[in-house]
Specification:
This protein is mainly α. It has a domain of 46 residues. The protein contains three helices and no strands. The longest helix has 32 residues.
């Protein structure tokens, strides 16, 4: 499981790097936004892989980790910015 976890972390980092190259991070994350995107990719891939191992099996865990990481780097920055805007508005 250690090797699978390291694989999921590396895949998440690669997906986060691709999201940086595609400029998917919000414009307000100028200073360390690239690092946040790498972290979001790695963390979401690791969580997705572990949840998929628990729910499905190790056979489907890597594919699920990839999909969760892609959804994480696409949707989580927007969700974070939306929540921040809602908190500042009230």
């Amino acid at each position: 499981m250690l090797i699978l976890s390291l694989l999921w972390l590396v895949l998440g980092l690669l997906i986060g790097a691709l999201a940086n190259a595609a400029k998917l991070r919000p414009s307000t994350w100028e200073q360390h936004g690239w690092l946040a995107m790498l972290g979001l990719g790695a963390l979401s891939a690791l969580i997705g892989g572990w949840l998929a191992t628990w729910i499905l099996s190790t056979l489907f865990a890597t594919a699920t980790a990839i999909w969760v990481a892609v959804m994480g780097v696409v949707l989580l920055p927007r969700l974070i910015m939306w929540c921040g805007a809602r908190l500042h508005a009230s």
